[in-house]
């Protein structure tokens, strides 16, 4: 029996050293360990703020799927995201989770970063303020939140190894990367903080005493726990002394190793007690949501409505020439693109989830317009899909494959066998009963019947050496491909080997894949053991484009769905390019040339270089990765039922070369083997960069609506000159158009004319989103900004924040004014 609430911290003196150390590690990928003897329960943790994932690495329980975090950033709506947090707490309880691992507040430093889709913005204020709204909502629901990743984990390439060559007390970290965390902690009190994989100034974040003790707990007064990212610990002693409370997902450098270090005197038991007490206090605060019930998924209308509201609030209308949008219900529509039938919901990695349901744009839009003709268009996949169950047959006649495991080279000793609808084996550290490592093999066999004749593609994704045969003849083979556990989980294309084979329609082919198991167990991480049989039938790209062109010629409007999905943007790897794939570009241009009007709906978490198509299309709607209600949210905007109100929270540069970080991303391995990241752009991230003119396609804060807004009467006042004095900005906003809409009021501060250091020409210091304004309606919007946050910069010489005296500018829309700061101010605290 577990203890009642508020008793766990009192149990510290009763714990043995081994039990205290046990509390400081996970027991598996989803759970922090407890202490059974004293009834201290484990803690269930769950990713993420886009949808609460079930426990385990390969669980198949669905969950409510919300839009990606970059979409949250584009809402600029704290109240809405607070309601999201409350719903996430409810979803977490359905999965018996006490801690939600998120939100992610790393900065959109470069448009290739694979994990940008699950972060808010290039701007620290938006990132911190919106994240705090989600944190507060989650914790109002009785569940803990654990924002991540502290700090500067802004690339996925070699993320376990790279060193960010910046001082903790340098301007880039203090004004951009740490600033997001500072804004978060000004506005919320999260139960946990997850550390980053990377190093900062030569020290791993999991053992960075300066970051933990001096900044996080010292200057900022943070009281919650700190936990590592999965397999981000590299030492036994240093993380304890730095203040890392929890190693996840299980004891690699703790457990028996840490007990031995305590007994040897390298770590004191008092240091262990301090960390264990944090973990006990966390249980006292989250015990109310602990549940022994099975994990489940419950579909609720209220949840779907919230997901839909968030999606349409964050979608951004980027172009709308000739009032192409909204589209009249009487229009005939050509709907083109794979994503129009197979909807994009989420990015890849730990921020992904299995949606409770998916509405395809095709089924939704057919209910909206007079007629809708559909063409699939070009293929958008990055990897060859796993073979479809409807064209394969196992020996028992059911759809699927036969899988057998062997412990000898002769394949005559079957230790385990099964039939499976999926043509794959996927194991990570936990293997089938009786399977030996090393020394085992797996065989996947099936009868495959293609539906068409042509040069089809067979592919395998194998962690070991393999042989692939068709009707007993070898068609492909290959050695084991060295790959890290992380890349095995996230970057499947690294394991893929393709071969083209000529096949006849409706002909049966006996396909067999034999793979050798791992030749040794991994050290420190679970061992991957996987094989997948993949298949794609031939098609003509030219024919696919012509099909789209054909229906476009006979329609009033063509809507082309394009962009990226979770195969392109994911945890674990970065993009190589931000250009649209060439085949998508060809499709869009060909369709646009034949269309009366062309609307481009883009799915992406990162900016896309649209240079090749932007002049061909009439309207562009950024739909992000919109979750399970994305299709209906998009329909709301395309039809004009709701006017778009999303604004970009990240600059869209015209080309990759225009981005300030372009020459300094991704992390690069040096001659001595080290991996480094240089923030050569300094604080000039995104819109803050100096001299931006023609490089920007769509600027930070940009987004069209179906109306227009007029600003007037900007007034600014200060209630004193103390650091916590408030600058009050008020401005009147009038809907000057013909439809109801909301606007985002963005407040930028410009520096004094004479400064000791270079400062950006303007910086966002406050924002709010209006209520829906009817045509002709006018409201006065007031935003308060604390003086120390509004005007300061980080003084590297003094190691403190500094406000210089002088005249500061305020910009709100087309309104400008100034205010005076009479004297210099210097301080160093939250």
From TrEMBL:
Enzyme nomenclature, EC number: 3.2.1.21
Catalyzed reactions per annotation: Hydrolysis of terminal, non-reducing beta-D-glucosyl residues with release of beta-D-glucose
EC category: hydrolase
UniProt-listed Gene3D superfamilies: Galactose-binding domain-like, Glycoside hydrolase family 3 C-terminal domain, Glycoside hydrolase, family 3, N-terminal domain, Immunoglobulins
The organism's place on the tree of life at top rank: Eukaryota
UniProt name for this protein: beta-glucosidase
A GO BP entry: polysaccharide catabolic process
Assigned keywords, A-Z: Carbohydrate metabolism, Glycoprotein, Glycosidase, Hydrolase, Polysaccharide degradation
Pfam families: Fn3-like, Glyco_hydro_3, Glyco_hydro_3_C
PA14 domain boundaries: 396-543
Signal peptide: none
Entry similarity comment: Belongs to the glycosyl hydrolase 3 family.
Involved pathway(s): Glycan metabolism; cellulose degradation
Cross-referenced SUPFAM superfamilies: (Trans)glycosidases, Beta-D-glucan exohydrolase, C-terminal domain
Organism: Didymosphaeria variabile
A GO MF label: beta-glucosidase activity
